[in-house]
UniProtKB/TrEMBL annotation:
The lineage of its organism: Eukaryota, Fungi, Dikarya, Basidiomycota, Agaricomycotina. Belongs to the AB hydrolase superfamily. MetX family. It comes from the Eukaryota. Residues 62-77, 403-414 have a biased composition (Low complexity). Gene3D superfamilies: alpha/beta hydrolase. One of its GO terms (cellular component) is mitochondrion. Residues 62-90, 387-436 are annotated as: Disordered. This is Homoserine acetyltransferase. Coiled coil: none annotated. Residues 127-464 form the AB hydrolase-1 domain. GO terms for biological process: cysteine biosynthetic process from serine; homoserine metabolic process; methionine biosynthetic process. SUPFAM superfamilies: alpha/beta-Hydrolases. It holds the Pfam family Abhydrolase_1.
């Protein structure tokens, strides 16, 4: 794939938007943030609006609660009101009444799973794609009649798109542990009538996938045409194929990993650490008070650094400063006075991202789900430690796409399976990771499952080497149906959200 030119075109289009659009309230006030020695009197204390913004936000939260105490109050800034249990008017909810076994703790007595669908389920229910989300996403992957707002994968779902609703029936859920309709730490514990908070059980990626398959059982769907996911969703997609080789026809893993790396664990730990240090967190029991919004803002800023890449920011922001308002006086005999609040454009961007996110997502959900990502490891020793018995690989041939399934005796059937065996290759690693044999042993249940692996060369959260090792490990198992692509471009981990042409094209070709 020639992704360089497409990446440059899209980047130029993105760069046309003025960077000042990312400036938040705290940054717009940064002109009042005097540098040391610049105050009118040596005895004046400097003013830091970016710090004061936390108190302003807190006052706004208190004020909004006093105006309306209704949990389902509407919000125009996100799919659900922050820290509320919204009425499920724009998505479906499946309530599972039986206990769900968990990897690390006792079973969860019951749970809800929020989900949305697109396309039409075939009479034989053989055209289903389960779409897995990243850490903080809701089930709203694309617009629906009930919720016409654009979803997080809007450009990839629909007629003729990567997930073609003319052919497939797509299901997307909010993961177990989330806060957008599925059971998580903010949900009421049936035994106490109060939010679980940090009494909620520790989760694994496998637990999230098992909850999704409970939904599939409820819907009468025995087999998936494909399991598709990006980022944490890629972990879920691999886990779905591992847990149920006979029920999952194909696996798509985009910008994911089969084994969380120490660097990714460190980044997510730093996010949890600043969040848990917020005095409002209160060991997770904050639901009757103020949420840990300052910690959430800082955690999101750390996360944002891992989602994009240095080359993109260099092209997009460079070392430019924010525009100075006319009200800010400057000395003619001195260069521009630097501010300690966000001053560089890249700082204003991070500030904006943190501000936008800090009240949209539940802090405990972030803690629990990010920990589940850290724990994910498909190497054989790790799976053995979890007491997970590997199932046998898929015994039958992979499923035919809907365009061919109506004519199973067609010569195109054999040709289709032949095409699946051809993969984009990469040079064998000069120094393969020491854990590669263990990963290959762990991935044996996927040895007969067609798998698409997409990696991004500028990704620092899930480096492309991790995508290569998944492809290498699957090939070591004997899987002859591994398709592997490395994408260029400068968008880093978020490429799966932005590069419609190449990401969408690879998925469409693999599924069709």
């Amino acid at each position: 794939m020639n992704v360089g030119k497409a990446a440059s075109r899209t980047l130029r289009a993105l760069s046309k938007a003025p960077a000042r659009t990312h400036v938040s309230l705290s940054v717009r006030a940064a002109s009042q943030c005097a540098a040391p020695g610049s105050s009118s009197s040596s005895h004046d204390r400097p003013h830091f609006p970016c710090v004061d913004a936390h108190a302003v936000r807190e006052s706004r939260i208190i004020s909004s609660r006093s105006v309306s105490s209704t949990p389902a109050a509407s919000s125009s800034s996100g799919p659900e009101p922050p820290y509320a249990r919204p009425n499920p008017t724009s998505y479906n909810v499946y309530h599972h009444t039986r206990p769900l076994p968990l990897v690390y703790t006792d079973p969860l007595p019951s749970f809800d799973i929020a989900y949305e669908t697109w396309g039409t389920l075939s009479p034989s229910k053989d055209n289903v794609i389960l779409l897995h989300t990243g850490l903080s996403a809701s089930s709203h992957a694309a617009s629906t009649e009930l919720n016409p707002a654009e979803g997080w994968w809007e450009k990839f779902i629909g007629p003729g798109k990567a997930l073609d609703t003319n052919q497939f029936f797509i299901i997307c859920t909010n993961v177990l542990g989330g806060c957008y309709g599925s059971t998580g730490p903010s949900s009421l514990d049936p035994s106490t009538g109060e939010p679980y908070a940090t009494r909620f059980p520790i989760l694994s990626i496998f637990d999230m996938v098992r909850a999704q398959f409970c939904l599939l059982d409820h819907l009468g769907i025995d087999r998936l045409y494909a399991s598709v996911g990006s980022s944490m969703g890629a972990m879920q997609s691999l886990a779905a194929g591992w847990l149920h080789p006979e029920r999952v026809g194909k696996v798509v893993s985009i910008s994911g990993t089969a084994r969380s790396s120490p660097s990714a664990i460190a980044m997510r730990f730093a996010q949890r650490a600043v969040l848990m240090a917020d005095p409002n967190w209160k060991n997770g029991f904050y639901y009757d008070g103020l949420p840990p919004h300052a910690g959430m803002k800082l955690a999101r800023q750390i996360a944002t650094i891992t989602y994009r890449s240095g080359p993109e920011w260099d092209m997009r922001f460079g070392r430019k400063f924010r525009p100075l308002p006319e009200s800010e006086p400057q000395r003619s005999d001195k260069p521009r006075t630097p501010a300690l609040c966000p001053d560089f454009l890249i700082e204003t961007y991070l500030d904006h991202q943190g501000e936008e996110f800090c009240l949209k997502y539940d802090a405990n959900s972030l803690i629990y789900i990010s920990k589940a990502m850290d724990l994910f490891d498909l190497t054989a020793p790790a799976l053995s430690e979890l007491r997970l018995d590997p199932p046998a690989p898929r015994s039958g041939p992979p499923p035919l796409p809907p365009s061919l399934s109506a004519h199973p005796s067609s010569p195109a059937h054999a040709q289709y399976h032949h095409l699946l065996s051809h993969s984009k290759s990469h040079p064998p690693p000069a120094n393969p990771p020491l854990h590669l044999p263990d990963l290959a042993a762990g991935l044996r249940p996927l040895s007969n499952t067609p798998t698409l692996i997409l990696g991004v060369q500028s990704d620092i959260l899930f480096p492309v080497e991790q995508q290569r090792e998944v492809a290498d490990a699957l090939r070591i198992t004997g899987n002859q149906m591994v398709s592997y692509y490395e994408l260029g471009g400068v968008w880093g981990h978020d490429t799966f959200l932005l590069d419609v042409q190449n990401v969408g094209g690879a998925i469409r070709g693999f599924l069709s």
